[in-house]
């Protein structure tokens, strides 16, 4: 089935104005680049069914998108640092000066993507389906089902857009907008959230007693590429979206949050490790175009800069603790990391199993990452220096004047030749080697600018789950639902079945299972279609976890720490699990959670680079000023990345170390 692809400018005009000429409407509806009634007739399904499937197929809606993902990984990762860019925390990489993501070359792709999509591709099939449904005199049970589910998808689209921008052009549920002569209105979060929360409630209620004949079920299963035609899964999805929305407004509408939590009691929610709403690249994209052209993995491959592991997750969240040792060199006591505790801890249940599922160690087998704090190399025993010093501190090159080349890496494949001064003077060698390794790391010389090579100096993201082309883009997952319930219980936001600790443990167990399966079930290689990049080393491609570690045992260990925390610390820990779980797949949910939790936690719960400004919202495309002057007058006063959005309950920008 063709996607609905109507020109952005045309649809934005339809959203923001009425259509007076029926001939133009008919011409647009029968656009050869769109999905038309004749195509539906030829395919043997109703036009509304076609629009439903078309909606599920939209780029960056329930699946990834190379361009959008690229910019969210690049600039979004500088905002909340789900993984690390080495050169942005080292003096060898860049200067310690305040920078932002607002005025660099990626601004448009980062700021404008969701706004443009929600006003074009994301809303197009919904409006056409609604127009067809409103004018139809022969509505079938399936047509009513598809329209009901498209109201849910409309709510999801607007939730994503309003989270980032606050005010967006909004069309009431049941309206086909400009197609029926109704102008969209700019509404903000305070208006949109109650509407979509109610839309979710109405949509789920309609499914409770719905029954389909075998023929109807077969047709629905064929059309539903998201949840396989399962009414139960749709109910779980809708209820979990409603829970997300209720948690997002908890700072400003706690009574609504409490009402939703009450009404969700006893209703099905996403609860299994494979309960997620998303579509994989291989479902929609020609296999030969995934890695090199259109898939989200192209974004990861081109953003190798962002694929280093972070100290926050490995050490502070997942309990990988480096073994610190000291040695006197040239009369100075130097500290270094001689190893870490992951090997024993994974088996004992004291280290998070996801360490071996999500991350890959450095060439020597250590899971040691990078800190977000700036390392200007003024402290010889900084975290970074201790990590790199462990590579050479016990090598004979520091004590044998005749040894002039330091070898490291797998099978000693990498080398550093001493300069003339260091060759002649043992006292200069330690500083020379440290400086050289820092430079190699900052310039990505250790991995030649490619993810998945065998000699990284710092742990990085594991390519097996990240480059699993069959991975569904997790727009929402059961782990988030469990964490939302845990937070609601901690903060007393409303009735929750089970304790905060139980939901926290459930989230960890589900996330471990999810990432283990993404890793272990990756069947792709350099010779498959799609193929993994030839720059990846086979040892990394084939490096599956040694076993599936006991997630329940680790969850019990993590829960014991959780129980000893204050309420604010618990909410921070819940956020950490959310950000850890979504990783590079989903920037928007942790970003919204970080902004709304600043007020409660008392600081920014995200892992922030010291040198990047915090960004409170996305800014609008400048083109809106010309295309919709009236709308621009409404939104321009809030078109400021330093202005917190309504749902945060704040009016003052959070500032990091250099701001």
UniProtKB/TrEMBL annotation:
Keyword Nuclease found: no
Source taxon at top rank: Bacteria
Keywords tagged on the record: Lipoprotein, Signal
Signal peptide residue numbers: 1-22
Name by which UniProt lists this protein: SusD/RagB family nutrient-binding outer membrane lipoprotein
Lineage: Bacteria, Pseudomonadati, Bacteroidota, Chitinophagia, Chitinophagales
Classification via Gene3D superfamilies: 1.25.40.390
Pfam families: SusD-like_2
Species per Swiss-Prot/TrEMBL record: Pinibacter soli
């Amino acid at each position: 089935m063709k996607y609905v692809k109507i020109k952005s400018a045309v649809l934005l005009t339809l959203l923001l104005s009425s259509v007076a000429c029926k001939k133009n409407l008919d011409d647009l509806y029968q656009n050869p680049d769109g999905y038309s009634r004749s195509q539906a007739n030829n395919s043997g399904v109703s036009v509304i069914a076609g629009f439903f499937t078309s909606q599920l197929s939209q780029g960056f809606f329930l699946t990834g998108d190379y361009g959008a993902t690229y910019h969210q990984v690049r600039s979004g990762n500088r905002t909340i640092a789900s993984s690390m860019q080495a050169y942005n925390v080292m003096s060898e990489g860049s200067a310690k000066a305040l920078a932002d993501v607002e005025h660099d070359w990626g601004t448009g792709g980062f700021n404008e993507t969701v706004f443009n999509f929600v006003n074009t591709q994301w809303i197009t099939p919904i409006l056409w389906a609604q127009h067809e449904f409103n004018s139809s005199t022969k509505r079938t049970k399936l047509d009513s089902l598809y329209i009901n589910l498209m109201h849910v998808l409309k709510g999801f689209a607007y939730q994503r857009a309003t989270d980032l921008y606050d005010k967006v052009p909004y069309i009431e549920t049941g309206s086909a907008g400009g197609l029926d002569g109704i102008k969209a209105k700019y509404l903000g979060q305070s208006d949109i959230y109650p509407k979509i929360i109610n839309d979710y409630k109405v949509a789920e209620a309609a499914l409770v007693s719905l029954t389909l004949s075998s023929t109807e079920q077969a047709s629905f299963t064929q059309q539903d590429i998201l949840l396989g035609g399962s009414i139960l899964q749709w109910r779980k999805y809708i209820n979990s979206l409603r829970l997300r929305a209720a948690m997002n407004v908890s700072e400003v509408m706690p009574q609504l949050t409490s009402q939703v939590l009450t009404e969700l009691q006893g209703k099905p929610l996403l609860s299994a490790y494979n309960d997620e709403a998303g579509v994989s690249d291989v479902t929609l994209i020609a296999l030969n175009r995934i890695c090199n052209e259109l898939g989200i993995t192209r974004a990861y491959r081109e953003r190798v800069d962002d694929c280093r592991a972070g100290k926050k997750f490995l050490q502070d969240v997942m309990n990988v603790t480096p073994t610190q040792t000291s040695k006197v060199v040239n009369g100075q006591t130097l500290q270094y990391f001689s190893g870490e505790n992951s090997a024993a801890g994974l088996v004992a249940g004291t280290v998070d199993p996801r360490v071996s599922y999500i991350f890959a160690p450095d060439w020597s087998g250590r899971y040691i990452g990078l800190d977000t704090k700036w390392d200007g190399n003024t402290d010889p025993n900084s975290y970074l220096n201790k990590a790199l010093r462990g590579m050479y501190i016990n090598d004979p090159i520091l004590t044998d004047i005749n040894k002039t080349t330091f070898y490291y890496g797998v099978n000693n494949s990498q080398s550093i030749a001493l300069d003339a001064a260091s060759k002649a003077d043992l006292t200069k060698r330690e500083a020379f080697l440290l400086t050289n390794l820092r430079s190699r790391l900052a310039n990505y010389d250790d991995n030649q600018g490619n993810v998945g090579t065998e000699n990284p100096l710092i742990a990085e993201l594991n390519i097996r789950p990240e480059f699993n082309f069959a991975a569904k883009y997790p727009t929402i997952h059961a782990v988030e639902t469990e964490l939302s319930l845990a937070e609601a219980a901690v903060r007393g936001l409303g009735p929750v079945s089970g304790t905060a600790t139980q939901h926290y443990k459930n989230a960890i167990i589900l996330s471990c299972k999810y990432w283990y399966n993404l890793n272990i079930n990756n069947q792709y290689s350099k010779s498959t279609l799609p193929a993994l990049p030839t720059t990846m080393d086979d040892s990394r491609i084939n490096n599956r976890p040694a076993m599936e570690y006991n997630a329940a045992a680790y969850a019990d260990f993590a829960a014991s720490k959780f129980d000893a925390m204050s309420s604010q610390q618990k909410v921070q820990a819940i956020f950490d699990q959310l950000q850890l779980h979504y990783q590079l797949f989903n920037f928007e949910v942790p970003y919204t959670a970080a902004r709304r939790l600043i007020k409660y936690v008392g600081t920014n719960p995200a892992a922030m680079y010291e040198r990047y400004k915090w960004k409170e919202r996305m800014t609008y495309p400048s083109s809106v000023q010309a295309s919709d002057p009236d709308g621009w007058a409404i939104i321009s006063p809030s078109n400021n990345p330093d202005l917190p959005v309504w749902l945060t309950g704040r009016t003052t920008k959070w500032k990091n170390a250099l701001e």
